[in-house]
Each structure stands twice: as C-alpha cells, then as structure tokens.
Amino acid sequence: MPKAAKNAADFAEKPLKNAKHEAVLQAYIADPKRIGFKSYLVVYPNSSDAAASTGFSRLLKNAGFAARLSFLDARVTEKVVEQAAVTREQVIEELAKIGFANMLDYARVTDDGEPYIDLSGVTRDKAAAIASFTVEDFKDGRGEDARDVRKVTFKLHDKRAALVDIGRHLGMFEEKHKHEHTGKDGAALVPVININGQKRSGA
Question: Which of 9, 81, 95, 172 has its CA 20 to 30 A from that of 15?
Fold first, then answer.
C-alpha cells in the first residue's frame, strides 16, 4: 500500500476531531435506512429538514468525513459477512438437532410396555427439538371417586422437514436431467397406449 494511502487509512481509523461531525457519522452508520438528514438532526435537533439535508451534504464533501465514512462502512460490511457465515453454520446445527432427534431421548417405556415422559436427561441441544410441551391438571370422576390426573402433551418439530432442508443445503437431492423427460428435439415425451395395450412414448 502506498505511504499516502496508508496514512489516509490510519487517519480514517481515528474518530474525527470535530466531535459533532463524528456523532453525525455514527448516527448515520447506525441507521439501517441511512437517511443523512435524520442523522444530522440527531446532533443538530434545532435544524429544519432542509437545513439538515444541506448540512449533511456539506459533510459528505469533506475529505476527512468521507474517508471516515468509507472506513466505517467497510468495517460494517465485514461484520455483516462474518455474522452471515456464522448464521449459516448455526442454522444447520439447529436443523440437525431437530432432524436427528429421537423420541426415546424424551420418553421411556415401562416393563409393561407403557410409555411415559422422562425429561431428566434432556440437554439444551435435545430441548431444541421440542416443538411444544404442555401440562394439564384436572379431576377425573365425581365426588369421592374423583382422582387427580395430569395430562402431558408432548410434540417434536418435524424431523422430515428438517432433514430435507439439510439435504438441500448439502446438495444431496439432484433433480433429474431435462433430457430424461424429453425427446431428441427437446419436446416432452407423451405416453401413448396402442391398440395392443403396449405402452410407448410419443412426442
């Protein structure tokens, strides 16, 4: 990097000497919509919209302000790209928790073959596969014969949908090539039944 360019980059890394200009710049960077005059109004609230628009345009023409803006903008872009990459990995990990979950991670079966919910061994990762879990207490019967009953409703997320999403991400599902469905001239093959009942393909 040329010395002059390096010096300019080093200069852009530091906050502007004018604290108010730096504040306008920070407000602009933080605004998802990047509306210049609104960022100006954050620092100069007594300005009209027109004056704020003019003031921000003037700042953009300042070499130091423009260099600082370019530097911060690049940093924001790098951060967004980095976060996006992490997010993709996290999404696959979360899908895997759902796709490879097993009901026996959350339930047990007695010697008599009766299933029952057992969450004593559920970890945070296994809990990610749980779609819903409700507990309802009520009385069954009347009078002295009534007994306390607890109804547990337990459901996991859709395993198949999660596995399909993972498979698509990994490119495991390839569509059949077009030529398998078309004739030599590219026309679609149409099944035709002849009088002998034998099936053939016609264009």
Answer: 81
Q: What is the mean pLDDT of the chain?
A: 81
Neighbours of 49 (CB within 10 A): 11
Contact 97, 126 (CB under 8 A): yes
Collapse the DSSP code of 186 into the 3-class scheme (helix H, G, I; strand E, B; otherwise coil) and give the result.
coil
CA gap 10, 14 in Å, rounded: 7
User: Which residues have C-beta within 8 Å of that of residue 22, sequence separation ≥ 6?
Assistant: 15, 16, 68
Q: Rounded to the nearest 5°, which phi and psi values hold at 156? A: -95, 160
Residue boundaries of the structural domains of the chain? 3-96, 103-156
- Burial level of 9, CB count in 10 A (0-12/13-18/19+)? middle
116 confidence band (pLDDT: 50, 70, 90):
confident
- The pTM score is 0.44
Among candidate residues 132, 123, 134, 122, the one with its CA nearest the CA of residue 158: 132
How many helical (H) and strand (E) elements, i.e. helices and strands, does the chain have? Answer: 7, 6
Kindly provide the b/e burial profile for residues 120-133, where b requires at least 16 CB atoms within 10 angstroms of the residue's own CB: eeeeeebeebbeee
